[in-house]
């Protein structure tokens, strides 16, 4: 089959690779319809995350149809339309039971193979899904494949980011970074009852979309933005900050802009070995800092349901649709934010 593989830093190849096979009785093989390039794929692309085997199939966001199932699979049938979270989940371990599905003791991240072990990704014609019954979520024809794809990662991650921030209608909040996750966090914050959500970014088209999702856009390219932010919060800073970038500078900014006693909810993938603020700084501001990979699987059914009822179109964040064979171009467009790229998907 055809797939996008990681060769080395800044080199994603459109390769011919072996078709995936059922290895365990609980596996399924999914024929991929659409896959996407995610911000976290860029950490591998830039070698900020290292250790990935050359030849690993990239990607963890996909929708498609069941092409084959192992003998132990009960809930799924050939031809079912399915979406996956970015990790596999057993559904029965302690962490799956408490809703922290991203830390499933049997879970694996798609597109991560190291020293010959791990799971290939989904930027391919087919993908093997371990623990298929408890990982995959079926969706019906009322939901578009593009909307379902977003629910497997960026929509769920944005939802989690807002959940962690303990929002209330009276609070004043900020989202740092209006990429796909930040935009979804903005929408989720509004849906979860926040009335005043400032969206911080430098890119005009991203700020415009944040405004459509109910935020007050605030360009950080402009020198006065901090004055505006402090004036809006009577000089205190924001009650919570939703950090959707995953860099030290974004967390540092969140620390500076959150009010004493406020919460920073951080869902971007971090690769730094140090915190962006010191224990003293955290103590002196009574900060609550919540960080980590989102348990996407936990939220997916409710978000599919919500998509049917919502007047917001989450697929507006998809700016580029390319064939899988143009995968290397999609990485570049997304990475460089060229041509107004917010989210690039690949059709298989
Ligand atoms: Zn992703
Ligand atoms: Zn589990």
Description:
By secondary structure, the protein is an alpha/beta fold. The chain folds into 2 domains: 2-138 and 313-347, Quinone Oxidoreductase, Chain A, domain 1, CATH 3.90.180; 159-291, NAD(P)-binding Rossmann-like Domain (Rossmann fold, 3-Layer(aba) Sandwich). The chain is 30% helix and 26% strand. The chain is built from 12 helices and 17 strands. It has helices at residues 39-45, 94-97, 132-135, 145-151, 154-164, 180-191, 204-212, 225-232, 248-257, 279-285, 296-309, 327-336; strands at 2-8, 11-16, 28-36, 61-69, 81-83, 112-114, 117-119, 126-129, 137-138, 172-176, 196-201, 216-219, 238-243, 258-266, 288-291, 318-323, 343-347. Helix 5 (154-164) packs across helix 6. The longest helix is centred in the last third of the chain and has 14 residues, at 296-309. It is globular. The mean pLDDT is 96. The structure holds zinc ion (2 copies). One zinc ion is lined by residues 38, 40, 60-61, 86, 153. One zinc ion (ZN) binds at residues 89-90, 93, 95-96, 104-106.
Low-confidence spans: pLDDT under 50, at least 5 residues? none
- What is the assembly state of the chains in this entry? single chain
User: What order do the helices and strands follow?
Assistant: EEEHEEHEEEHEHHEHEHEHEHEHEHEHE
Overall residue-averaged pLDDT value: 96
Strand content: 25-35%
How many structural domains? 2
The CATH architecture of the largest domain would be Alpha-Beta Complex
Bound molecules: zinc ion
The end-to-end distance, rounded to whole angstroms, is: 11 Å
Global shape: globular
Annotation, overall tally of beta strands: 17
CATH topology of the largest domain: Quinone Oxidoreductase, Chain A, domain 1
Q: Name the helicity range.
A: 25-40%
Main beta sheet strand tally, sense and closure: 7 strands, mixed
How does the helix and strand content classify structurally?
alpha/beta
CATH H-level homologous superfamily name of the largest domain: Medium-chain alcohol dehydrogenases, catalytic domain
Separate helix tally = 12
What's the Cα radius of gyration?
20 Å
The CATH C-level class name of the largest domain: Alpha Beta
């Amino acid at each position: 089959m055809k797939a996008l593989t990681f060769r080395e830093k800044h080199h994603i190849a459109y390769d011919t690779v072996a078709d995936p096979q059922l290895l365990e009785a609980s596996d399924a093989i999914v024929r991929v319809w659409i896959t996407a390039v995610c911000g976290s794929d860029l950490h591998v692309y830039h070698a900020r995350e290292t250790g990935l085997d050359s030849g690993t199939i990239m990607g963890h966001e996909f929708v498609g149809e069941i092409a084959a199932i192992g003998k132990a699979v009960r809930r799924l049938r050939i031809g079912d339309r399915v979406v996956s979270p970015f990790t596999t989940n057993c559904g029965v371990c302690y962490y799956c039971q408490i809703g922290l599905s991203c830390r499933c003791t049997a879970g694996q991240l798609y597109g991560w193979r190291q020293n010959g072990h791990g799971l290939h990704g989904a930027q391919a014609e087919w993908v093997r899904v371990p623990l298929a019954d408890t990982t995959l979520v079926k969706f019906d024809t009322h939901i578009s494949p593009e909307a379902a794809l977003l629910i497997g990662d960026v929509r769920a991650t944005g939802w989690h980011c807002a959940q962690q921030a303990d929002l209330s209608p009276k609070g004043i909040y900020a989202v740092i970074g209006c990429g796909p996750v930040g935009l979804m966090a903005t929408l989720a914050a509004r849906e979860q009852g926040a009335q005043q959500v400032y969206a911080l970014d430098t890119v005009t088209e991203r700020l415009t979309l944040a405004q459509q999702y109910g935020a007050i856009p605030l360009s950080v390219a402009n020198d006065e933005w901090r004055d505006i932010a402090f004036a809006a919060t009577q000089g205190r800073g924001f009650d919570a900050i939703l950090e959707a970038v995953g860099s030290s500078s974004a967390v540092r900014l969140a620390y500076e802009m959150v009010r004493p006693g406020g919460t920073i909810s951080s869902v971007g993938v971090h690769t730094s070995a140090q915190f962006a603020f010191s224990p003293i700084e955290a103590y002196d501001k009574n900060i609550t800092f919540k960080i980590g990979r989102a348990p996407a699987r936990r939220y997916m059914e409710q978000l599919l349901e919500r998509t049917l009822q919502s007047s917001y179109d989450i697929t507006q964040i998809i700016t580029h649709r390319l064939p899988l064979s143009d995968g290397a171009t999609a990485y570049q467009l997304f990475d460089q934010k060229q041509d107004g790229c917010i989210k690039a998907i690949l059709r298989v």
